[in-house]
Amino acid sequence: MTGRTHPSAFSRFGIGLAVLALAATACTSGGAETQSNSTDPAAGAEPAALAIAPEDGAETVAPNTPITVTAENGTISEVKVDQVVPDEATAEGGEEEDPSLYEMTGTLNGDGTEWISDWNLRPGATVTVTATAENEAGESTELVQEFTTEAAVPGQRLELDPYGTYPANGQTVGVGMPIVLAFDLPVTNKAQVENSISITSEQGVAGSWRWLDDKRVAFRPEEHWDPYQQVSVEAHLAGVEASEGVYGVRNTKIDFEIGRELIVTMNVPDHEAVVTVDGEHERTIPVSNGKASRNFDTTSSGIHVLMERYEHLTMDSSTVGIPEGSPGSYKVDVQYAVRTSTSGEFFHEASYNGNIGSANTSNGCTNMRMDDARWFFDNTLMGDVVETTGTERIKEWNNGWGFWQLSWEEWQSESVTGEPYVTDGSIPPGSVHGEQ
């Protein structure tokens, strides 16, 4: 077996060899007895010898230390890692953790003599490593060692920020949806954190992470996601050293679904938005876009991704830098508002605008009549794509989720690992461990 072992593949590997171990003549820390009259050339073979690092009894081991198992006179057949953390350190607030989030997988070298853990260790844990190896005669040797890891210091415990992390677990999203992870503390060891996140989609695609700032990282595929598939994100943050002395304390799994492919195309001078679903025309919506008297009230051209939505929203120019009483200021209540940028562009109901379908007179948003706005609100998803053309204002790639404004080469070039990642459940390309 070569390369890194996918969790499901590792489970099959471990189970199969466990069955072989039951059939072996012995399972001890020393050599196994063999019959003296055996003609088997492997009879009398030296017993396999195992070594595990960190050493038995070690205390306050750095959580980002890899577990290494080596074998002589045999090959490694199974490694099991148990991590026990006191309840008060496991889940603040009393919520129960899913033990499967902390199942340790590892990478076995080509000749089966060295195994290295794929992920980091839980801070403040008692770690028990049970390793099994077999010699040429199929005789098993088992070694068990225990050590403890350094606890994460209060105030230096990295976790995901749920208010900035998208999509949510269980959510159905559109084909343009990025994966955005937000952290509650700044990250300086970005490569190690990036390599701690694995993604699995039913149709594996090449994608890449890009850091938006020290607290946010986003992933997008090379092309839009294929529709109708499940995606799983596993953030193995426990034990990763995000910055000096700051350790991740828990792992998180986010499962979401890519829904149908809904694309909105809108050439602003045409005063209409055309909606297609899975390549078929669904609806043409009369609209009124920005009057374009200045950059602010010009609807931006480019690839937008639908973001958050509100049934009722007060649109106040003071929130985007135009105080009340200033030229061009406004404050209006609207319904069925769907955001397309952080700078304040929305698709929304604007029953007060008599120019819908005939002239562009908005403050930069896409105005719709009530029935169309409600339909748009009810039938679109976070992550659906809006392709806008016909204006002189070009959407910035980092204005909302304008990530598709960048070419694949531009997007991927800013990954700190320098390599694309394929969402087939494989392990990320670089190390998650600290310097050894």
UniProtKB/TrEMBL annotation:
PROSITE patterns: LD_TPASE, PROKAR_LIPOPROTEIN
Keyword Signal included in the entry's annotation: yes
Residue segments, region Disordered: 417-436
Alphabetized Pfam families for the sequence: Big_10 (PF17964), YkuD (PF03734)
Functional pathway: Cell wall biogenesis; peptidoglycan biosynthesis
Keywords: Acyltransferase, Cell shape, Cell wall biogenesis/degradation, Peptidoglycan synthesis, Signal, Transferase
Catalytic residues (UniProt): H348, C365
InterPro entries assigned: Big_10, LD-transpeptidase, LD_TPept_cat_dom, Transpep_catalytic_dom
Ranges of residues in domain L,D-TPase catalytic: 262-389
Keyword Transcription on entry: no
Signal peptide location: 1-23
Protein name per its UniProtKB record: L,D-transpeptidase family protein
